[in-house]
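[Target chain]
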Amino acid sequence: MLVSCVLLQVAQPAFARNLALQTSSSSQTLDPLEQCANEPQPPFTYGKIRMPSLKVEAILKSSRHRQASDVTIITQCSVDRLYMLEAQCRAWSGLTSVAIYWPLFFFDPTNTDKLSTAIAETKAFHKRMEAEGGCRLDMVVLSEVIKSSDTWSYPYNALRNQALARAGSDVILAIDADFLVVPGLHEKLSGPEAARALLEDLTMRRQVVVLPAFETDAALGIDAGAQIAVKAQTGSKQQLMQMWEARQVIQFAEFYPVGHRSTDYPKFFNSSAPYAVKFKTGYEPYILVSRKAMPWYDERFRGYGWDKVMQLYQLDSMNFQFVVHPNAYVIHRPHIPSSGYNHTFTGEAYTKKHKPTDHLWKMERIAKDMMAELKAGTYPDVGVTTLSHCSASSTPSAAARAVNWW
């Protein structure tokens, strides 16, 4: 049974209709930040750049029990990649807040039917996940009207912000839907004493906890690579090291070495305790972080390139320390390149042989402007997002540290 299900009528094309929310009976009290995210957002521009204009089409919330020590994955995906979310969900017993994207096209008479089908598919997926167990899944379906030629312009950061606004816990794990999480991680993080220690590190000590990211060698292909990824996910750290030495698994995004090199993979394999790493521009690890301390993602970034990089750059500018978890890690599940990737690069995908297009340079210019603003102290405190007027309702209190969270 769903705790809450909010659906929009789709009798007319999405860009022309005047929609009213229909809410099923529920006694659940929404977090003010989530409530704000549910409200229609006015058009917003920053400089000459128009922000994504997302509309809430459906909300599906898990009816399963929640507790204060839960950790929430925040993520996003399109409807055609729900199968990846499913694989992630099955190994994670915590909460997952996911924003699902469905583009609508100007003057397309099939918008209504396709959106209805997408919502129905998402509802069926949610019902199945509720029945199977695994993660406790909160989903929001969001539409956006775009030109048919702009299917590459996936609004990663706007979707991440929607998931962030709906996260139901003080601690979040920011990760993409195509990553597998090691089984049992949530149980280890959410035990009462471990949860208190983790929250204190993320708040009082201003840390973000890095989960080393791995992928399979591209030479394995998608099908064999997916099998190796599952083997790496379910094995021990010692087995992972053996796979690393055999080059079955490698540093994630090896074609972009600065993205994860600071994690120091050799040190990870030889460490039994957390260790601090130095941030370098371009570093974009997957992290555990305090929800209340997490800045909004900058929504000027669309398509592939620089989107996560600048989020991590901002955390560094806020004097957060990056600390690597000694036992937890994530594994990328291989898939065909997205249209966004193909808009950003040409040539052999995910290799050093690919060539950047003009889009990457446009995103880089935005990134350099953002870096300059952060250094000068002129970057907006509320971030560059349509949710800038929304704020968390409270600041988490840190309990006394009892044990190490790892």
Observations:
- The first strand starts at residue 5 and ends at 8.
- The mean pLDDT is 88.
